[in-house]
């Protein structure tokens, strides 16, 4: 179960925040299909434990920030996720868009992501509420940052780990 503490890192797969001076920002409740493809590629990489493919969805200057304020570079984050998944099996990923903002070659996505699978034979569920930033490059959209607001790891129906502040329900 000790390895599950690192599994919180796999939850930083939601949300985007980017800005650009070239185009007005557009906020809506739909996700650009090319950015959705980045999330899908991350999910596939995690299900296949393909950490090279996982890293390729992120820019080289990617930085993730966990709910406690700890920052990790792309390479540190990928290593954390790899260690966290040792002994775990991710079978599905679900993305619930909260809000996306597109502005030229930048995007910010607020998302709730859940991962389902198993941990040492017990059902596993990981929920991450985060804001991700993306930049459009010659290679397409790449995630260049994530700020995780909350994550919960549930094993066998019991909360194993919770960090961050729960979302405030809308009035």
Walk me through this protein's architecture:
With 171 residues, the protein is of the alpha+beta class. The chain contains four helices and eight strands, in the order H-E-H-H-E-E-H-E-E-E-E-E. Strands 1, 2, 3, 4, 5, 6, 7 and 8 form an eight-stranded mixed beta sheet that branches. The relative contact order is 0.28.
List its traits.
171 residues, disordered N terminus, 4 helices, alpha+beta, 8-stranded mixed sheet, 8 strands
Strand content: over 45%
Major sheet description: 8 strands, mixed
Low confidence ranges: 1-27
Secondary-structure element order, N to C: HEHHEEHEEEEE
Helix content: 10-25%
Number of helices: 4
Q: What's the Cα radius of gyration? A: 15 Å
Number of strands: 8
Shape: globular
Indicate the structural class. Answer: alpha+beta
Distance between the termini: 38 Å
**Average pLDDT over all residues:** 84
